[in-house]
């Protein structure tokens, strides 16, 4: 499975749920006010709730309250949030059509609420929601207009018949005018919603980058200070252990203890180096360099150190020369070293790590393959984040350094892994220089 980046669906669903809950509240307030206005205006001075106009308006509002309650209960489960939002938009337009019918038909000022729902649709799901609301408005208003045109609809029995006598020219004019208004509002609202979405996404990315830079700056100050304080005693410990290990009076158990101390000293020194590289990156010094030479050197060096010198075999596969890329030599070496070291750490005793350089489609490629337990699906999204690790003794720094170096060079890093079946880290260096 390829590693991909994107916005988690749970986050997007939670945001839409909050918007829909607020829309429910606003809708119910508006409908309640409108119900009172219709009752006072179109049922006479005695506020006759038994009149047909009031009954229809009351029914529409009651159904809206019921839909709001049902959707609020469903939203707590967090399932099908977008579908619930779209059902609300369609039902709102039908509700407005009923209220338009009881408040003057095609001459009702309530037609402006169609545009309000289109704006709400744009807020909820962007242009898609606004377009759905517009389509529902056109269909429902068109159906009411057609009913008046064909004389299938008459005005409510409690209102004057003359107020609902429309000529065909009036019906066509009102239909065209309202459709045009709904389309214009939809296009504007959808455009503004998409622009706001893009701007908000860019702002979120900028804020994340600023926070990351601030964290890296703080880490850089800490790492630089600690590097000096740690490396000095580490050097002394390593030197003393080498002298002690070279003496002839040690038995096998004591020599094994010296080897453990030596390995752990090397690991601590590598950790300090990774921390400094991650926190205080330097600008790459680009030169033309042979990836094959770098990869073979790293394989040879890693085979003589750590687990690769004892229970994990590291093997190079590929050409002996010819894969030229434009990169900083020391940083490219660090990238390959970290990938190989990560593969060795993920391997089981007796496994083999393959380091391959190849050319595919004019692009130079590096692949580091291990046969460990694989990468869990839930971990792939954060695999290259600083301090994220899937191992109990890992630090989560090595792969973060790999990603930073790759980004600064314009390389593409991909991960292919099946849980329980090892992992392949692939670096695409792009086309050869001059092509």
Largest sheet: 5 strands, mixed
Helix content: 55-70%
Uncertain segments are 1-13
Radius of gyration: 35 Å
Order of strands in the sheet with most strands = 2-4-5-7-6
Q: Strand-and-helix sequence, N→C?
A: HHHHHHHEHEEHEEHHEE
Apparent shape: elongated
In short:
The protein is α+β, with helices and mostly antiparallel strands and 435 residues long.
Key descriptive features of the protein:
elongated, 62% helix, 3 domains, 435 residues, Heat Shock Protein 90, 11 helices, disordered N terminus, alpha+beta, 7 strands
Q: Could you explain the architecture of this structure?
A:
The model is unreliable at 1-13 (pLDDT under 50). The protein has a 5-stranded mixed beta sheet, with helices on one face. A two-stranded antiparallel ribbon has the order 1-3. It is built from 11 helices and 7 strands. It is α+β, with helices and mostly antiparallel strands. The chain has helices spanning 9-42, 52-75, 81-102, 112-125, 127-149, 168-246, 252-279, 291-302, 329-346, 377-380, 398-409, and strands spanning 287-290, 313-317, 324-327, 352-360, 363-370, 412-417, 423-431. It has 3 domains: 9-210, no CATH class; 227-279; 287-431, Histidine kinase-like ATPase, C-terminal domain (Heat Shock Protein 90, 2-Layer Sandwich).
